[in-house]
From TrEMBL, chains A, B:
Gene3D superfamilies: Hotdog Thioesterase, N-(1-d-carboxylethyl)-l-norvaline Dehydrogenase, domain 2, NAD(P)-binding Rossmann-like Domain
Entry similarity comment: Belongs to the 3-hydroxyacyl-CoA dehydrogenase family. L-carnitine dehydrogenase subfamily.
Domain 3-hydroxyacyl-CoA dehydrogenase C-terminal: from-to ranges: 185-249
Keywords: Cytoplasm, NAD, Oxidoreductase
Record-given protein name: L-carnitine dehydrogenase
Length: 491, 491
C-alpha cells in the first residue's frame, strides 16, 4: 500500500497536486466542499495521465487511488503529506490550519500552496507550527518540477529533510529558500514582469500578443534552459560575470522602465554574484556553455515545431518559404522527370539528432525516412486535407541499412523509388546521401487505412491513380541492391 | 549572386548577424577594426553551422561568403542591408552613422543592434534619417528569431516593409513596435527581472544558481512557448482574462517586490487586456490551450533530457530513482533467469511520440528499440564508461514490423532475445508489448567498433564473454517468427 496524501482544496493547483501524487503511486484523498471538485480533478487527471508518465524513460509506479471525502478529518486520517491549496485569504487559511491541527497525524508534513504568504504567517498560533511549511508549486503542477519550500525556525530539521525527500520523490525540485520573504522568489519576478507589461499595454507600446511574442521568440527560449545569471555569464563571454556587471550595470540607472529603485552595485555585491556564478557554472567554459545552449535551443525549437507552436511555428513557416528554392516539390505533377527516383528530402542533420557516438542516431534515420515517406504521400495527393478527411497510410514494415555516418549540419538528400503501388499497398525504397556518399537505405511497406475503423482499405481513385502512375514510371528502374533482403540473408 | 549584407562591428552580436545572413545565402562583408574580429566571427560561424541549418526540415540556400574589409566604404559598397553593432555609446554610434551616410547605397536599410537607444536618437542630424531603423536581435542571433524593429515617422513605409521582408526571409520575427520607447520591449522585462534578482542576492534570499533554478524549472518552461498573457489566460481558466486580472490584481499592491509603482487597473485597461487576449488566443478553448501547453512542455522537457540539462537533468535523475522499482536492471548479473528474454524497457509512450494519425509514430518505435539496445549493451558491460574509453556498438541493419497501435501514456515493455553474440557481431530481437498486446518487433544487427578509427573490431574479453554467456543462455529459446525475414519475403 502506497503512502497517503491529503489534498485540501481541489482547484487547478490542488488537482495538479492530486495528479502528481497519484501518478507517482500515492493514495490521494481529497477534501473540497465544491460540488464540482470531482469533475475538475478528473479533468486534470486526464491531462496528467497523457503527459506525465512519458516525461521520462522509465515507467512510473502503479497509479494510486483518488478518493473524495466529506470532512477534513476523514481526508487526513493516516496521511503522510497534507497539501493545502485553499483560496489566498489568510483568515480562511488560518481556519483550515486550526482544523488540520486537530486531525493530522503528528508525523505528517503540511504543505501550503500559498503564493503570497510567509510560513510564519501560517504557523502563527498553531499548536504544532513545526508541521507547516510553504510548498509553493507552479501550474501545471504535474509537469513543472519547481516547488518553493519555505520554512521557519519552528520547523524541525528532520521534518524539512522529509519534506525535501518526499517532493524529490515526486520528481520535483524543492527550492529551499534561505529565509522567508513575501511572495517567495519566482512570483517576485513574475510580478515585476507583469507590472511592466501592464505599463506597455496601457501606454500602447505593444499588445498582449506582441508582448508574448517578445518573450517566447526571444529570452523565454533562453530562460527555459539556463535562467538569468547563467545566460548572462555566456553573454559576458570569457571576461566573466564581473565584466558583464561592469558593462551593463549603468543601464540600471537609465530610464528603461517605469520603476527605478535599484540596489547599489557595491564591490561586495559584485563579488557575491561573480563568486556564486563561478560556483554554479564554473565547471563549463564559456565555449562549452555556448555549445550546450545551442543544442538545447535546437531541441526546444524543434519540439515546438512538432507541435507547430510558438517559435516552432515560425520555423515551419520559414521552411515553407525556402522550400521551393531547395528543389523539393509537393505534387508529382511538378516533377520534371517521372522516370527517376523522387527527391523526397533535402535537409541538414539537426544537432539534436546526434547520439553519444557523435553521429546521427539510428532512430533519426527513420525519422528522416518517415518524413520522406510523408512527402511521397503528399505528392500522390495523400496530404494533410486527405488525412483530416479520414484516410491515411500506416507503415507496416521497415528495413534500414546503415552504410556510412552522418554529422550535425551536414545536408542529406533522400531519393525514393516506388517499388510497388497498387490497391492498399505501397512499397518504397529510400536512399539517403550526404555529399554524394550513400549513408543509409530504407525499405518501407505501407498499407492504406481508414482512420475511423483503423482497418486497411483502398485509397481514393485519384490517389491510387497517382501512385500507380509513379510506380509504373519507376518500373523500368533497376531493383535496388538490398531490395527485399532480410537481416539473416545479409550475412 | 546573393544579396549583400554589411556588418559594422563584429562582436558576439555582429558575428551572430554575419552567421545568420551567410547561412541564409547572403554575401557578408565585415568591417571591424578589432584585429581579433576574424577569429571571433569564425568561432560564431562554427557554432552556427552546427545548429542553424538543422533547425528546420528543409535545407537552407548555399552558404554565402564572409569577407573582411578595412574601411566602412569598402564593406558597404552595393549593400542591401547594413547592420551596425558597435558598442552602446551614442557619440560613437553617431560618428559611425555619419560615415555610413557617405557610402551606403540609398536603397539599403541600415539596422542598428542597439538595445537602449531609440531610433530618433540615431537618426538625429543625418542626411537620410529614413534609412536608419532599430533592428535589435537577441543572442544567439543565429538561432533566436526575435528582432525588435523600431521605426519613426522619418522611415518611409516602403523601407519599413522591405526591412520586415528581409528579416522574415532570414527566419526571424520582426516585432514592429507601435512607437519608440527606451530599451524597446524585451529588455524592459529583462531589466525588471535583473533588478529584482540583484535585490534577492544582496538580501541573501537566494543564490544566483537558486534564482536560475527558480526560472528554468518553473515559469521559464512556460514562457518559452506561451509568454506571459497566454500563460495567465490558461491559469485563469474558463472564467477568462477579466477574472484573472480581478483575482490577481490586488497582489500588485502587496509588498511583493522592492518596486511598487503600478498602473491603476482601470476598466479601460482591463478591457484592453481582455480584448487583446481574445484576439490573440480566442481561437483555442482553455482546454485546448492546456493540451497544447502540456504537449509543448513534454517536448521541451524531453529535449532538455536528451542534453541532460536543466529540468531535463532533473527528469533523468528521477528516472534513475524510480528505475529499481520498475523491474529494470543494469547488469545481467542482476537477472534472476538468464534463459528468458531480457526486460530491456518499461516506459510510457511520451506525448511527443504521437503523429498526425493519433498514434506512436514509426521513428519513435525505433527510438524505443534503440534505447532497449543501449540497455542490453549496458547489461553486458558496454556502458557509458566503456564508450567514453573509446569503444561502442554501431547498428548496421534494422528490421521493424508494426503489428498494433500504441497510444500516449500507455506503458510499453520491451523484451529482448540475443540471436547472435560473438566476436564483433551482435544480433538482437526485440518484442514490444503494451498491456500484453504485441505491438511491434525489431531485429537489429550491430557491429562492435573502435570510436577512434570508426572501424569494427572485437570488444574487450569481458564484454565478449558476457555477450556470449547471454547468447548461449538464449540459444534454447525458439526462433522468433519473423527472424531474418525481409520485406519481400513477408508478402
Amino acid at each position: 500500500m502506497g503512502k497517503i496524501a491529503a489534498i485540501i482544496g481541489g482547484g487547478v493547483i490542488g488537482g495538479g497536486w492530486a495528479a502528481r501524487f497519484a501518478l507517482n503511486g500515492w493514495q490521494v484523498r481529497v477534501f473540497d466542499p465544491d460540488p464540482e471538485a470531482k469533475r475538475k480533478i478528473g479533468e486534470v487527471m486526464e491531462n496528467a495521465r497523457l503527459s506525465l508518465p512519458g516525461l521520462g524513460n522509465v515507467a512510473l509506479p502503479q497509479e494510486g487511488s483518488v478518493t473524495f471525502h466529506d470532512t477534513i478529518a476523514e481526508a487526513v486520517a493516516g496521511a503522510d503529506w497534507v497539501q493545502e491549496s485553499v483560496p489566498e485569504r489568510l483568515d480562511l487559511k488560518q481556519k483550515v490550519y486550526g482544523e488540520l491541527m486537530a486531525h493530522v497525524p503528528e508525523g505528517a508534513v503540511i504543505g501550503s500552496s500559498t503564493s503570497g504568504y510567509k510560513p510564519s504567517e501560517l504557523q502563527a498560533g498553531l499548536a504544532r507550527p513545526g508541521q507547516v511549511v510553504v510548498a509553493h508549486p507552479f501550474n501545471p503542477v504535474y509537469l513543472l518540477p519547481l516547488v518553493e519550500l519555505v520554512t521557519t525556525e519552528a520547523n524541525e530539521a528532520e521534518r524539512v529533510d522529509r519534506a525535501k525527500e518526499i517532493l524529490t520523490g515526486l520528481g520535483m525540485y524543492p527550492l529551499h529558500l534561505r529565509r522567508e520573504i513575501d511572495a517567495h522568489v519566482a512570483d517576485r519576478f513574475l510580478e515585476a514582469v507583469w507590472r511592466e507589461a501592464l505599463w506597455l499595454v496601457r501606454d500602447g507600446i505593444a499588445t498582449t500578443e506582441e508582448i508574448d511574442n517578445a518573450i517566447r521568440y526571444g529570452f523565454g527560449l533562453r530562460w527555459a534552459q539556463m535562467g538569468l545569471f547563467e545566460t548572462y555569464r555566456v553573454a559576458g563571454g570569457e571576461a566573466g560575470m564581473r565584466h558583464f556587471i561592469a558593462q551593463f550595470g549603468p543601464c540600471l540607472k537609465w530610464p528603461w522602465t517605469k520603476l527605478m529603485d535599484v540596489p547599489d552595485l557595491t564591490d561586495d555585491l559584485i563579488d557575491a554574484i561573480a563568486d556564486q556564478s563561478d560556483a554554479q557554472s564554473g565547471a563549463h567554459s564559456i565555449r562549452e556553455l555556448e555549445r550546450i545552449r545551442d543544442a538545447n535551443l535546437v531541441g526546444i525549437l524543434r519540439a515546438l515545431s512538432r507541435e507547430n507552436w510558438g517559435a516552432g511555428a515560425l520555423q515551419k513557416a520559414h521552411d515553407d518559404r525556402i522550400e521551393p528554392a531547395s528543389g523539393l516539390v509537393r505534387h508529382m505533377d511538378e516533377l520534371s522527370d517521372l522516370s527517376q527516383p523522387v527527391l523526397s528530402a533535402r535537409r541538414a542533420v539537426p544537432l539534436e539528432w546526434l547520439d553519444y557516438n557523435g553521429h546521427m542516431t539510428e532512430s533519426r534515420y527513420l525519422e528522416a525516412f518517415a518524413d520522406a515517406t510523408d512527402r511521397v504521400m503528399q505528392m500522390i495527393g495523400c496530404d494533410a486535407d486527405y488525412i483530416a478527411a479520414g484516410q491515411s497510410y500506416f507503415t507496416a514494415e521497415t528495413h534500414i541499412r546503415h552504410i556510412d555516418e552522418s554529422k550535425a549540419g551536414e545536408v542529406i538528400d533522400i531519393r525514393t523509388q516506388v517499388i510497388e503501388g497498387k490497391g492498399k499497398k505501397m512499397r518504397l525504397f529510400h536512399e539517403m546521401r550526404a555529399g554524394g556518399r550513400l549513408v543509409a537505405t530504407g525499405e518501407h511497406f505501407l498499407l492504406h487505412v481508414n482512420l475511423e475503423t483503423r482497418r486497411s482499405e483502398p485509397p481514393t481513385p485519384q490517389v491510387e491513380a497517382a501512385l500507380v502512375k509513379l510506380a509504373e514510371a519507376h518500373a523500368a528502374l533497376p531493383a535496388p541492391e538490398a531490395l527485399g533482403r532480410g537481416i539473416g540473408a545479409a550475412r
